[in-house]
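PROTEIN DATA CARD
Card holder: Putative CoA ligase (AMP-forming)
Chain length: 552
Origin: Methylibium petroleiphilum
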Amino acid sequence: MSSNISIYEQGLDQTTANFVALSPVSFVERSAEVFGDLPAVVHGARRQTWAQTRERSARLAAALRALGVARGSTVSVMLPNTPEMVEAHYAVPALNAVLNTLNTRLDAALLAWQMNHCEAQVLITDREFAPTIAEALRLLHSEHGRTPIVIDVCDSEYAGPGDRLGTHEYEALLAAHAPLARLDGPADEWDAIAVSYTSGTTGDPKGVVTHHRGAYLNAVSNAATWTMPHFPIYLWTLPMFHCNGWCFPWTIAMLGGTHVCLRRVDAPSILGAMREHRVDHYCAAPIVHNLLIAAPDELRAGITQKVRGMVAGAAPPAAMIEGMAKLGFDITHVYGLTEVYGPAAVAVKRASWAGESLSEQTRLNGRQGVRYALQEGMTVLDPETMVETPADGQTMGEIMFRGNIVMKGYLKNPQASAAAFAGGWFHTGDLAVMEPDRYVKIKDRSKDIIISGGENISSIEVEDALYRHPAVMACAVVARPDPKWGETPVAYVELKPGAEVSAAELVTHCKSLLAGYKAPKEVRFEAIPKTSTGKIQKFQLRERARSTQAIE
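Structure generated from the sequence above:
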């Protein structure tokens, strides 16, 4: 009598010996076990080995467990790039709890809203942020009836003002608890590991829920994408609150590397740390790379090691990629969103590109590229028909992802989750073309396309032209209402220190590189609003352009 059960399904059961749920927590245990004597964290005068970092993380996990943190509990953290932030990324997931890293630039009302929305049970906060957090906690209690347990971090490298707000102090709490015997991952790799909030440029921000499996696979993908060796020395220029540091807290643990922490991000601090600690890897938004390009030569003196940078967070201007190449920094361009754990695509460099001119290399490297090795799908689809656009470099569609490195969904927002996953793909909202080699190139965010007289103008294309002027430090182009054309481009520009250029000169410069109708009709020399990760906040500029138009 035949059976429908395959011979490979008989007596070959899944057991604890042959199956373990994927979780990046396992990387910490391995590095402590194998590389325990090697450096794990550098922070000012502080030094920690992997054995010490694992022990401190296990003490934090034990302390949080004693405070009632368990599977599904939310632990919010308001921390700069410090050892405590690294430890939170190891301890909270080990309890199968959910880590909520708060943006340190947010105001009290938004912080209170987020902590209420994710039902924060514990808050770990640095003294520096005490004034804002005190107000956030007041609002959280008065408006939402929620009072989380507060743990204060008194960082040895911070000498500024800031009151203690909680009943627990971080170091005393660790000292009072024996470390857990092991930092274990979850029973189910689909369990949530973190909730990260989008910027909320339209309506309330959305809570992006990510899982252990995705965090594990993206951490591995980071290493594969960058061909990172064992023991990298990684500089924290990217805020760890941003998409969990693009999963690099776990990537560095996997490789037994060294976290070099920075509380402040500026050119002297970055370049000084690179020189002192022989840093060889760092990540940043384009604005931070531009800081290094504009830095005086003397700040870069003594950096003789090969430094590899990863850029994402916004489409990098061609001038930035070219400028970093001239400095000798090896830049890898990646692309992603909070919903895909940070970077999930990369402009993979091919050997043949090295023979191209610098301008052509810049063009090739400036593309958003192809999917990460462990991401199952990335393409450009017509969002209406869900049909893939031809790889002709001309036909525009929307970038979409599918696979293991995609969020679980939006917290308490099934409608938004369903819309984001419509048709079996995650919709990014980024408009792009697919080039003949199947590398993707963003043309703009759907809301950033300027429609002037029926013609589509890519704000990115205009910005690229502006960045090619030697006086421009930062710029952003948005639409302003126009009674004749419907919309016309207006450019907001910040100049490099000591540089001078007129608006007319910049318009002429753009016209030398673009069709005349694409050039800005107005240039405003004003401070450009940015997020704490260096991303330009165009929604504020669009509002500014509209309000100015109304006044006129």
